[in-house]
Amino acid sequence: MVPKVSSKTTSGKRKRSEKDSYGNGNSVRDLPKSNASQHNLIFAAWLVQKYGQGYLRDGGVIDVAGGLGLLSFELSVRYGVNSTVIDPRIVPLKGLLRRKMKNLHKNRSNGTQDQDRSALMTFLHRNGLKVKDDGILLESVSKSINDDTKEVLPFNSIQATFSIASEEEHVSALLRNSSLLVGMHSDQATESIVDEALRHKKPFAVVPCCVFPSMFPGRYITSDEDHEGKKQKPVISYDDFVQYLESKHDKIRKENLCFFGRNVVLYMTAEDCE
Ligand SMILES: C[S@@+](CC[C@H](N)C(=O)[O-])C[C@H]1O[C@@H](n2cnc3c(N)ncnc32)[C@H](O)[C@@H]1O
Predict the structure, then answer these.
(1) How far apart are CA 191 and CA 187, in angstroms?
(2) Percent of the chain, pLDDT > 90?
(3) What is the CA radius of gyration of the chain?
(4) 41, 173, 214, 240: which sits with the fewest CB atoms below 10 Å from its CB?
(5) Separation CA 44–CA 54 (nearest Å)
(6) What band does 165 get if pLDDT is binned at 50, 70 and 90?
(7) What are phi and psi of 125, to 5 degrees?
(8) Residue 35, ligand 1, Cβ within 6 A
C-alpha cells in the first residue's frame, strides 16, 4: 500500500483543489487515495490508537456490516486483534489481500521492513496516528496463511443481518463479551450498532454514511426552525443523521478521520459507558 494523492471524492463526482481540507486542517497532499480499503486502514489505526491494542484484544471487535472484511483484515492481520464480521454478504478473502497477509508475515518473520508498510506508517504518523506493530500473530491468521484451500479467513465471519442476528444467543454472547462494536459506512445497520451498544453498555465507534430516509421515516431531530408547526425535522441529510445519532447519549463524542468523504466517527469509550 503506497499512500497516493487523489483529487476525487468517494463518489468520484467532484474534483477537489489542493487547498481542500478534510476537517483537521490537513491539505489534500497529505491524504491517501480515497477508497474503502484506505478508509478501513485508517479507521483500524484510529481504533488501535483510541482504545489500545490490549483493550481490543481482551474481548475482540465486532465489525458490523463489515462487507468484504477490510477492517477485520487490518485489525487481525496487522494489529493482532480478533475481529468478527457480521454482514448478510458472504466474505471471500480476495487474492490481493491474501498476498498482502503473506508478505506482511514474511517481512515480520525476517525482521525486514517492506516499502508498503513504511509508506503507510509515515502517512499515519504524519496524521497523528502513532500506531506500531507489536508482532502478535493470531492463531486465526496463522491458520489462514498456511491454508492451501484459500478458504480459511484470518478473522471470524457471521453471515447475518445485525438487528435480527443480535436476537440470536451466540451473537448476544459475542456482544456481551466483546470489547467494541464498530461500523464503517455501515448503511442500514448504523443506528442498530449505536442502540445495541448503548443497551449493552458497550463502547462503539461508527462512521455513518448513507441515510436511507424513506426506509427510516420515524427519525427526527430538534430544529430551530418550524417544520409544519413543530420544532422537529425529519432526518434526511447526512448532517441530520450525524446529529440524530449523536443525540442518543450525552457522552457520544465526534472526530474526523483523515480521509475524504464521510469521515465523521461517533464513538464512546469504556469510561464513557460506566
Ligand atoms: C457500504 S458497505 C460497507 C462495507 C464495509 N464496512 C467497508 O467499509 O468496506 C455496507 C455494508 O453494510 C451491510 N449491511 C447493510 N445492512 C446491514 C445489517 N442490518 N446488518 C449487517 N450488515 C448490513 C451490507 O451488506 C454491506 O456489506
Answers:
(1) 9
(2) 58
(3) 19
(4) 214
(5) 14
(6) low
(7) -65, -40
(8) no
In Å, how far are 15, 165, 178 from 245, measured between CA atoms?
29, 21, 22
**Helical axes 115-126 vs 95-110, angle rounded to 10°:** 90
Distance CA 62, CA 170 (A): 13
pTM over 0.90: no
Beta bridge pairs of residue 21: 27
Distance of CA 190 from the midpoint of ligand 1 (Å)? 9
Q: How many residues does the chain have?
A: 274
- The answer to whether 119 and 41 are in contact (CB under 8 A) is no
Strand 61-64 relative to strand 180-184, pairing: parallel
Q: Which atom of ligand 1 is nearest to the CA of 89?
A: 25
Determine the distance separating the centroid of ligand 1 and the alpha carbon of 112, expressed in angstroms. Answer: 35
Work out the end-to-end distance of the chain between its first and last CA atoms, rounded to an integer number of angstroms.
39
CB 38 within 8 A of CB 259: yes
Residue 72, all three cell numbers: 477485520
Question: Exposure of 115 by Cβ count < 10 A (0-12 exposed, 13-18 middle, 19+ buried)?
Answer: exposed
Q: Which of 266, 141, 126, 112 is nearest to 191 (CA)?
A: 266
- Percent share of the chain, pLDDT over 70: 84
> Which structural domains are found in the chain, ordered by start?
28-212+238-268 (3.40.50)
Cell of 127: 496524521
Question: Is the model more confident about 95 or about 225?
Answer: 95
Structural contact between residues 156 and 84, judged by C-beta atoms closer than 8 angstroms = yes
163 lines ligand 1 (CB under 6 A): yes
Tell the burial category of 20 from Cβ atoms under 10 Å away from its Cβ (0-12, 13-18, 19+): middle
